[in-house]
Structures
1.
Amino acid sequence: MEHKHIISVLVLHKPGVLQRISGLFTRRWFNISSMTVGSTENPDVARMTIVVQGDDTVLEQVVKQLNKLVEVVKVTDLNSKKSVQRELCLVKVYAPTEDSKSQVIQYANIFRGKIIDLSTETLTVEITGDEQKVNAFLDLVRPMGIKEIARTGLTALMRGSKILKSNKA
Amino acid sequence: MKGAEAMMKALEAENVKVLFGYPGGQLLPFYDALYQSDFLHILTRHEQAAAHAADGYARASGDVGVCVATSGPGATNLVTGVATAHADSSPVVALTGQVPTKLIGNDAFQEIDALGIFMPITKHNFQIQKTSEIPKIFRKAFEIAKTGRPGAVHVDLPKDVQDDDLDLEKYPIPAEINLQGYKPTKFGHPLQIKKAAELMKIAQRPVIIAGGGVQIANATPELIKLSEYAQIPVCTTLMGKGVFPEEHPLSLGMVGMHGTQASNYSVYESDVLIAIGCRFSDRITGDLSSFAPNTKVIHIDIDPAEIGKNVGVDIPIVGDAKAILKDILIHLMKKEMVNKTEWMENVKKLQKKSMPVMEFDNTPIKPQKVIKEMMAALREVDPGLTNTVLTTDVGQNQMWMAHYFQTSAPKSFLSSGGQGTMGFGFPAAIGAKFARPDANVIAVTGDGGFLMNSQELATIAEYEIPVIVVIFDNRTLGMVYQWQNLYYGKRQCAVHLGETPDFIKLAESYGIGALRVEKPEDINEAFKTALNSGKPYLLDIIIDPSEALHMVPPGGNMTNILFPDRQEPTPKAQCFSEMKKILSPKV
C-alpha cells in the first residue's frame, strides 16, 4: 500500500552530496514529497529528512540504495519509530482591513503562530507544526486570500533519548 | 614533487601496471610525469576503447583497470566504457583531466561537468580540489573500486592540481583508509546461513543460478563443491558464464532470455532456487509473476540493495559469495540430503533436449559451425580451454557464443551484460591480453559492433598485441533484425550494413594479417593460422544472415521459448533510390 515515509539520513557534509542523493531519487523514480537539509551537532555531518511516497518495497529500496552511497553514513525509517516532526511555514495573508487583520492574529494565536511582518494590505505568519497542522491553518486563512507561501518541508527526530548514531564510523 | 608525480606514486602503490588512455591539453602534467615513470601506457585510438580495455583488463584479472582521458570530449568519450564497466561490477578507475580550478564553472575551453556526468554511472567519484588531497583520494578511489561489490570510480584532475607542488612526506599515501559511510559486509549472517543449509537439505528440486558475483568472489571451487555434494544443478547468467564448468554433468547452461531449455525449465519447476551473485535482471526473469512460481528463494549477494529488488526472497544472505558458500558447506556436510533421483532424471532429460546442434555443412556458414571449429582449433593448443580468454561484442554473436561455446574457466568469457555495449568486445580483448599475456585472447564480434571500435586495429598493430579478431560477418545488425522480424511484422528498418568495408583490406592497411572464410571446411585451418601466427590477426567469417537463435520474448514467461523462422534479410530497396536522388548532383 502506498503511504508516506519519513526517512532520516546522516550524510557527510560535503559539496555534491545533495546532487548524488537527488540524482538517485530521480534515476530510480522514487517519489520525493519533501527534502530538508541542515547541519547537525557534528560539523562533518549533515542531516537530511526525506519524505517519500511509495509502498514498502519502494521504501526498502530507498533505504538500501541510500545506504550504498559512499557519503551516506546512516539511514533510518522514522515511521517504524516514535518521532517528532515539524515543518516551518511562512504565509502572507491578504488582510487589508483592521477586522481581517485581527482575525488573522486570532487564528495565528490559536495555532500558536507568530506574526512576523505587517503591511497595510498583508500579514505574514510564521507557523510550525506537523504537516496536518500547517495544512489546517492554511485552509483556515485561504478564504481571506493567500498571497504567498514558503514551506520548508518536514524535519524530524526520534522521540526520547534515542539518537541516530553512525554505526559505520 | 608535482601533483602529477604524486599521482604516479599513488598508482604505483596500487600495483597498477598498465594504463589505457589518450592524452590532451588538460592532462599535460600527468603525461609528463608518466614520461618519467615506468608505467606501460597504451595509447588507444579512441577514449571509449581505453575504458573498455581497462574494463577487459579488470574482468580478466580481477584487479583494477585504469583508463585516462582529457577534459571535455575526452571525458565524455569515456562515458560509455565506464558505464559498461560499472553495470557489470567491474573495478575500473577512470581518470579525467579538468581545466584549472580557477576556471571551473566559467565554461572554459574543453570544460565539462565531469563530476556531474560520471556521478550516476560510477560507484563513487571525486574531483581533486587541492594537490594535498591526491594521496588520500587515489587510495580511496582504488579501495572503493575493488572492495565490496566492485565498480567504476572516477577521479577528475584539474590541471593546476596536477601541476602544483606536493610534499609527499607531509601528505603520505595512506596504507589503510577509513571511509565513514562505506563498510561492505563480507561474512554472511550465521542464522541465515543455517536456515539456507536447512532449506537446501530438504529441497527436492533445487537449482542454483550463479552470476557474475561468483566470478568476482573467485568462488568457483566452493560452487562446484556445493553443487556436487548437495546434487544441485547449476545454471549461469551471462555474467556468470565460466564459473561452473559447462561440461560438468550438473551444468544446465545459460539461463534467461536466450538461455537453454534445461536452465529455464529447471528454474521454473524448482522448489528451492539459490541465486548467488546474481541480480535477477529482466533478462533472467522475464515476466516476474510467472518466474519460478513455486519456489523458495535463497539470495546471496554482497550488495544488500540487490536482494529483494526484483524477486521476492525467502532467505537473504548479504556478503561475499566465497565466504558464504564455505559456511553453508560446513553446515551441509553434517546433514543428509533428501533423495533427488527423480529431479536428476528430469534434469538429464532437459539437458538432452538442450543439446546444441553444431554440425552444419551449409554455405553461407552457420555460426554454430564456426564455434565448433573454433573450439576444436583452440583445444589443439589449449586442451582444457582454460588458457583462453574470449571477449564478445553485443548482439547475435554474443548470444551464439554464450550458448554454444563451452567455457571451463572463470574470468575467461568477457561480455557486456548490463549495458549491452556494442563496440565492447574488441577493445576489451586488448585489455584482457595485458591481464593474461600467456592466454589465447579472442575477440568475437559482429560486423556492426566491430565497426564501432575498429580503429583499435591501429593500436594492436602499433604495439603488436596478439589478439585475434573473429568477425561473424552477416552484413546485418542481426539481433535488431531478428526482433524486427519477430515483433514488427518483418519490417526491417536500418539493419542492413551493406557489403562494405572489405575487412581484409582494412586489416591489411594497418599491417595486420587477415583471412576471409566463406566455406565451412576452411574454418579450422583459418583458426590454426591465426592462433599460430602469434601476431594480431583478423578472421572475417561470412556467415548466414538468416541464422537466428531461439529466445524468450521480453517480459515473457521463461519457459515460452520462441524458435524464430530463419529468413533472409531483405533491404528496403526504395531507401537507396531515394537517397541517390538527394545526393546526386543536379544536371
2.
Amino acid sequence: MNYPDFNEEDFAADDFFQRWVLEQDIESESFWQNWLVDHPEKRLIVKKAQWIVQNVSFTETWSPAERAAMWQTIQANLIQNIKEEAPVIPLWRRLGWVAAASIVLVLGSVGLFYSRWSDQEIRTSFGEMRQIKLADGSTVTLNANSTLKVANDFLEKPSREVWIEGEAFFDVTKRIVKAGKVPFVVHANNLTIQVLGTAFNVINRREKIDIALEHGSVKVVDEQNTTNAVVLKPGEKVSRVAQKAPLVKQAIQIEDYTSWKEKVILFKQKSLTELAEMMKDMYDIDVVIDNPALKQETFTGSFPADSAEVFFDKLEKMYPIAIHKDGKVFHLK
Amino acid sequence: MNSAVQQEDETSWWLRLLRGEPNALAFFYERYADWLLKYGLSVAYNRELVQDSVQELFIQIWNRRENLTVPQSVKYYLMVSLRRIILKDVMSARLTTDLFPDHTLAVDDQPGVDFEEVAEANVRKLQAAVRALPPRQQEVIFLRFFDKMSYEEITGLTGLDYQVLRNTIHRAIKALRQALIHNIDLLLPFFLISAI
C-alpha cells in the first residue's frame, strides 16, 4: 500500500485502516501507531479519516408501538395449528383483584418546583410514574419507587445539582448564564454524572447503577476516586454492579432503557432472579422462585407497565412454569 | 455475550420454532426486529416498505417452517432473507424511497463554540450525506461501518464481487467526504490537542 500518498478519503476507504478504527485488533493497532510515529505529518489527515469511519451512524428508531403493531400483523397472518387447545382462564382472573389493583399505574401530574427555601424531595410510590419540570426547564421522568432530590439553591449555584435513587429519565436543557454554561450534575450512590445538554436514563437500585445515554454526552465520575471516569456517547451505557466495582461501558439499544416512559417494560435476556428483583422494586410484588433450576432461565419480551398480569401470562407460556399466589407472594415452580 | 453461547441458545430456539412453538417466533422477533428494520432502511430507505418486508419475513418463516433447516447464523440468515424480500419489491417498482427529513439536511454552517457542538453538527451532516447515497452504497456502508462485517462476509451477503465492493465503498466515502468538505476542518483545532 502506498500509504504516504493517501488522503483522508483513501484512508477511510482502506480495509486495513477500517480494521484499526472499527476493531482495534493488535495487528492493525500496532501497525498504525508505528506508522504514525514515522509519519507525524499525516496525523491530521488520519484523524479526519478516523472521524469519518467512526461517526457513520444509522439513527432511525422504531417505537415500541410500531413494533407491537407489526407483531400483531404477523400473528394475524400465521397459519395456525388445527390442534384444539384447552380453554385458558386468564391469569389475572385466577390471581384475583389484589394483583391487578396493586400495579395500577398512577399517571403523574406535571409539577413545577421552585426550590428557593429548602431542598426539595419528590418521591414516587410503587407503580407510580411522574414527570417533573425543574426550574431551569429540564424535565425528569421519575419511575416507580424512586426519589429525586433537588438542591435548594438549584439555580444560584455554579452547577445545577440533583440526587437520584431508583430510576429516572433526564432531559436536560442547556443553561447559559453570563456567556458561561451551567453544568447539570446528577449524584447517584457516589457516582457523579456531569451534563451539559442531553437526555439519559439512570437506574440506581440495590447498589447497582446503570446510566444509559440517548443523545448529547455525559461524563460519569466515581466520587471516591475521580480518576475512575467514563465519557458516554449516544447509544452507550455505563454500569457498576456494586460499590467500588469498576465502571463498565457497553453499547446498547437505547429503547431498552427508555421504553418504560412509554409505559412498556422491555426485557432482553433477563434472568428470572433479575425479574423478581424488578417486580419488587417497581410494584412491590414479591416473586419467589421455588425451583432453583429456574433462577438462571432468561426471559426476552415486553409487557405494558400497567398490567403485570401480561408479564406472568407470557412467562407461563414460555416456560414449563406453574405460577400460584400465596397471600401477597407469587411462587414460580 | 459469548457468541458461541448465543449461537447454541439460538439453535435450540430455532428447533423449537421448526416444531411449531409460537413463542420461538416471538423470541426471534424480540431479538432481531429492531436490527432488521435498521438494516432494511439501508437497503431501501422507505419505512413502510421495510416494515412490510420484516412482517413478510417472519410470516414466511413460520408458514414455511417445514421446509427450513437450521442456519449457521440466524442473524445472517434473517438479513439475507430480508434483503431478498425488499429487493423483490423494489424490482417490481412498487415503491420509491422516502425523502430524508429536510431539517436535518439544512444544518447551519455557523461554526460552533465548543467541540461538542462542532462535532454534533458534523455528525448530522454525515448522517444526511449517508442517506443521500445511492441504495447500494448505503447498504455496504451500513454493513462495513455500522455492523462491522468483514469484506468477505459482505461479499457473501450481497453477492458483490470483492473488487466491486472495494470500489463501491471508495465511491461512498468520496461522496461523504465531499459533503463534509468545509465542516470537518472545523474539527481540526480539537484534533490537534487530542491524542490518537
3.
Amino acid sequence: MHSVVCIKQVPDSAQIRVHPVTNTIMRQGVPAIINPYDLFALEEALRLKDKHGGRVTVITMGPPQAEAALRKALSYGADEIILVTDKAFAGADTLATSFALASAIRKIHESHPVTLVFTGKQTIDGDTAQVGPGIATRMELQLLTYVSRINELDEAAGRITVERRAEGGVQLLKTALPCLVTMLEGTNEMRRGNLPDQLRAARHELTRWDRVAAGIEDVTKIGLKGSPTVVNKVFTPSPRAEKAEMVTVASGRPADLAIELIARLGQRFPVVEAELARRAA
Amino acid sequence: MSNDAPVKKKRKFELDPRLATYKGVWVFIEHERGQVHPVSWELLGEGRKLADMLGVELAGVVLAAPGDDGQRFCHDAFAYGADLCYLMESPTLKDYRNDPFTRGMTELVNTYQPEVLLLGATTQGRDLAGSVATTLLTGLTADCTSLTIDMDNRSLAATRPTFGGSLLCTIVTLNYRPQMATVRPRVMAMPERQEGRGGTIIEHPLAMAEESIITKVLDYIPDDSRDKPQLPFADIIVSGGKGLAKQENFQLVWDLARVLGAEVGASRPVVQAGWAELDRQVGQSGKTVRPKLYIAAGISGAIQHRVGMEGADCIIAINNDPNAPIFDFAHYGIVGDALQILPALTEAFRQKLATTRRAG
C-alpha cells in the first residue's frame, strides 16, 4: 500500500489584502499554509496506512519555501517528502502543473509502486479543481473526484469502492487500483502530529527534484511554455456606478426606517414587489 | 494554477491556420437522473451572446443513454437558444462517469472542432472539463464570472476571481482550441425559454463497450432535498455577518427570513464561527446566489462575499459602519445597528405582507 499525496503551499487567503494603489496582492506577512483541502487527502492516506500498512509519500511542486509545507506533512506522519522545484516550472497553469506532477509520480512509482494518488478537491488560491483530473488523465489512472468516503479497499484484488459527491446525490463507485482520488472537505479531521514525528520532521532530509530528476525531458510541456492559458489582466472589481441609496428618516427610529425602506423598495423594484405579493397570497 | 502565470502585454496575434478551422460555441448539457442541470441553460444564454459576437452557431452537447431523454434535452436546448445539438447516445453514458464522457466529448471536439466549449462548474462539469482539457492539451479557465470575446483575435476572454476572490483576472487561451471555461451555477442569468424554437440534431455514435470501462456505478443515493438549504435558487435571502456580534443574535436573521419565506445565508466568518452551517455560506468559497431580494445584515461586503451575491436584483445592506464596502454596490443602505434594524424590518415586512393579503 503506497499513497502519494499531492499538496500545495498556499497563502492563507482569509488574510490576503490587495494594495489600494498598485492593485497587487500584498503577500508580506501573510502566513503560508498547506492548502486546507489537501489535509483531508493526507489524513485519508494516513488512515489507509494505519489500516493496511505501507507508506505515504507527500509531494509538492513549488518554490523552495514550499519545503515548510512538506515538513509539516511529515510531522503528521508521512514517510517521505519530495519537493519538485525548478525555475523551469515557473508560470505553470493547471495543464503544465499536472504534467510535471504526473512525471514526478511516475518516477516515484519506479522505486515504490503507487497504489493511490490523492489530492484535495481544489486549492484555496486557484480554486480550479483541475490539477487532480489533469494528473489522472496524464497517468491514465481512473479518476474519482469529490470523494467523501472510501468504503472498501482490497489491495490484493486491486479494487476500491468510494462514495462520490455528485450533483443532487451521492454516487457509489467501484474501480481498479491504482487510481486518483480528490477528497471533499469535512470528510475527516487531521490528526495531531506526535512528538517523535515532529522531531523526525525537523531532521528529515528533504528530497529535492529538479526538472531532470522528475524525469522531464520536454521543456515545452512545463512552466510558461507548457501553459495554454495566459493571464491578460489582473484587477480589483470596480464599484457599481451608483452607490447605495442611503435610507434615513428624521426620527431615526428603526421602525420608521424599515417602513421608509419598504415603501421605496416597492417603487424602484417592481420585481421585488411582485415577489412579496406572491408570498402574501 | 492559471492565476500564477505572469501577466503578458497584449499583442497582435495570428492563430495557427490549422486551428482557424475551429468554429462554433458549444455548451455541455449536463444531466443527472433525467434532469438537466439549470446551469446548462444559463450557459446557453451566455453562449448565445458569444456565438453572436463571433458570428457562429451555438450548439448543445448531449451525452446520454439511448432513450427519450437525449432527444428531449436537445429540444430543450433549442428552446434556450441552441441552433444545433450534438447527440451522442450509448448505454455506457447512462450515469456520469469520467471515462466514457471524456472519450465521447473529446471525440466530438476532434470531429466537429468548436472554438469555445463551456461547462458548468459543478462536480460533474469540473470532473469532465479537467480531463477533456488535458486530453486535448488545451486551456481551461475555472469558475468564470464573465465571458466575452476579444474581437482583435477572436479569443475568449474569461474573467474569474483569484486568491479567494480578492482579485479578478482575465485569462485567454491563444494558440489552442477549443478554448474551455467552466462557470458556476447562478453566475449567469437564466435565458427566457422560447417554446417551439427548433434546431438541427447531429447524432454521433460512441464506439465504447461497457466491458472496456473500469469504473462502475454501484448505486446513486439522491439527497433528501427537504433537509438541505437551496440557496442558489432562492428568490429571497436574508444573510447575516459578524456584525451581529454573537451567535444568539443570528436568530434575528432567521426571524426575518421566516416572515419573508426566505432562505438564510451567511458570510464566511459566521460559518467559520459555527453560527450557521456550511451549506449557507454565500461567496467565493460558498454558494453563488441570484435572488430577487438579498438582505445583508452586519456584512461588510468583502470581495469574497460580493462575488457570490452581486447578481441579486436588489441588495439591501444594514451596517453600522458608513464606510463598509457593501454600500459601494448595494441598492439600499441603512447605517445602523443590525440588532435594532432587523426586528424593525421583520415587523414592517409582516405588516406589509398582511396588508397585501387583505387587499388581494
4.
Amino acid sequence: MTHASKKHWIFFGLALVWFYVLLWPLLGIKADGTLDFTAAFPVWIRVAVVGTICMVLFTLKTMGAFRFLHGPIESVRENLNATYSRTPKWMIFLPLLALAIAYPFYTGRYAQDVMVNVLIYVCLGLGLNIVVGLAGLLDLGYIAFYGVGAYTYALMSIHYGLSFWLCLPLAAIFAAMAGCIIGYPTLRMRGDYLAIVTLGFGEIIRIILNNWMSLTNGPNGILGIKAPGIYLPEIVDGSFTFEHLYMKKLGMVYYIVLGLAVFTIIAVHRLNFSRVGRAWEAIREDETAAELMGVDTFRFKLLAYAMGAVFGGLAGAFFAARMRFVSPESFTFLESALVLAMVVLGGMGSIPGIILGALALIALPELFRDFELYRMLAFGGAMTLMMLIRPAGLIPAKRMGKRSEEEE
Amino acid sequence: MDYFLQQFVNGLTLGGVYALVALGYTMVYGIIQLINFAHGEIFAAGGYMGVILLSYLASHGLMETHPWLGLGIALVLSMGYCAILAIAVERIAYRPLRGSSRLAVLLSALGMSIFLQNGLMLTQGVYDKAYPTGFTQGGIDFGNVHISLMQILILTLTTSLLIGLNLLVFKTRIGKAMRATAQDKVMSALVGINSNRVIATTFAIGAALAAAAGIMVGLYYGSVRYDMGFVPGIKAFAAAVLGGIGNMTGAMIGGLIIGMVEILAAAYIPYGGEYKDVFAFIILILVLYFMPTGIMGENVDDTRV
C-alpha cells in the first residue's frame, strides 16, 4: 500500500467519524430524556459500507487493477464515435422519432404517463437552456414562466372557454411578456446577483398566485380546465360534418406533447445555429468583449429571456391541459432547481444532453419508487457530486471554435 | 403611535434575527464570492438542534429549575454543532471546486441545500416540531407597548453576538487573517496565511450565528419545520446585498431594514400580511437596480459582482 492511498484511507476514516458526529444528535437525542447511540448506526453503517466499496474501487483503480478493461472500452468508444460521425444525422433521428411515435402502442398507461412528464421537462429544460446554456445567464426562477403559461390557459379556458390551440400561442405571448418584465430591470446585473433576483421574481409570482384569491383561487387551485379538443371529420346521414372531440385519452395527450417537444428541439437547434445564437454565445463567453464587437448585449439578453419563457409558457399551457388542474404548489423553487439540474446534468447547451438529463431525473426515480422518500436527498447529493466530478455534464456541448486558454 | 412603537419593536426583533443570518452570507461572500445557499439550511439545522436539546434538557427537569442555564447549554451546543456541519459542507462541496467556474460552485451549493433540507426531513420528520415553552413568559410594558421577555432575549443576544463578532474580526489574529483574505487571497497566501483554514473558520462562525438565529426563531414562533430555512435564507441574503455584500455593518443594517419593512408592511399596507414575503424581494430588486453596491458597499469591478 502506497503512502498516498494510506492517506486516503485515514482521511476516509476521519470522514466516517465526522459523519457519525453529525448524524448522531439528530437521531440519538430523544425528547423523553434518553440518549440513544444505536439509532444512528443503521444509517451510518449503510453509508460506511457504500463508502468503503467506493474507496476499495478507487484504490484498485489507482493501483491499476482495471487497466485490462481500459483498452477494450477505449477502442469500443472510438469505434462508436467513428460510426456516429459517419452516419447521416437523419439515420439516427428517424428511428428515434418512429420509436417515439409508436410508443403508446406498446406501452401501458403508467409508462405513457411517465413519458408525458419527461417530454414536458424536455421542453422546460430546452427553454431554460436558451437562457443558461446559450446566453450564460443563470436563472433560478424559470418555473415562473411555466406557471404563467399554465395559469393563462387555465383562466382562459375557465372564464372565456377558449380552446387549447388558441391558448397555446397566447400562453407563449404572456410568458414572453413576463420574461421581458423580469428581464428588463434585472439584466444589467451579472452572475450571482442575477441568480438571486430571478429567484426572487419566481417567488414573487408564486406568492401572487397563492394569494390573489379572486383571480387564481389561491392555494386551492383551479379545477375543471378543459382538455385539448380536435375536430374529426364525420359523415352522418350523408352530410359531411366535423365532430368536436376532447382529447382526454393519455395516448392522444402524448402526441400533443411529443409535437411540442419536437417543435422545441427544432426551434432551439435552429436558434443555436443562427446569428442570434452566435450573439448569445459571444455574450456567454465574454460579455464585455461581445459588447465591444458591436453585439447589442442588452437586447440579446432580453431576447434570450423572452425566448426561454416562450417554451416555458408552452409547456405550462400543456401541463394545465393535461392535469386539468393547476395550483401554486406546482411552481415552487424546487421545480426551478430540478429543471436547472437537468440542464446542468445533461450538459449545458447540448440538446441530446438535456433530453438525457430529463430522462435521468424524471424516469429514473420512477424505477426506484420504493425509495420515494430519498428522492430529493439523492437529487441534491447528485447535483453536488456531478459538479465535483463532471462539471460539464453528461454530454457536453461541442464548443464553436477554440478559446485561447484551451490551446496548448 | 403606540401601535407603531409596538410594530417597531417587533420589526427590530425580526430584523435582528435576519441580521444574524445575513452576517454568515456576507462574510462568506466577502471571502470567496459564493452565495452559500446551504446557509439557510444550517439556520434550520440550528433551530432543530435547539428543539432537540431543549426537549432533552426539559425531560431531565433542568428547564424548570434553571431555564436560562438550559437555554445557554442548548445555544452553545447547537452553535457548535452547526459550525462542524458548515465545515463539513465546505470541505465536501466547496473546497474541491475552488478555482472552477462560478456556476459550478453555485450549483454545488444549491445541491447541498436540497440535500441538507431533505436530510433534516428524513431524520426529523415532515411535521412541525414544537419548542418547549413556558420559561420565557412575561415581559415589560411601556404604556401600551408590550415587550415580551422573548423579544428582550432576542435583542440582547443579537446585540451581544454582534459585538462579539466585531471584536473577533477587528481585534484578533484570525479576524485580521479573514480581512486580509477577503481583500486579496493570493497576497495573503503569500505572506503565510492559510487561506483554507481561514475560509473554514469563516464558514464555522457564520454557521454558529445562523444556529443562534435558528433557535431564536424557533423560540419566537414556538416551532420549527424542516423547510424553514429557505425563505429566511433568501431574505437574509437580500439583507446582505442591501447593506452592501461583504460588509458586516451593512449586513446588520440591511437585516434590520428588511425585518422592519416586513413587519410595517404587514401592519399598514392592505393585504400586506399575505404578501409580506414579497417585500424583501422587491427591496432587493430595487436596491440592485438603483444602488448595485448596496448601502455600505464599495465600488467593486465587474469581475466581482
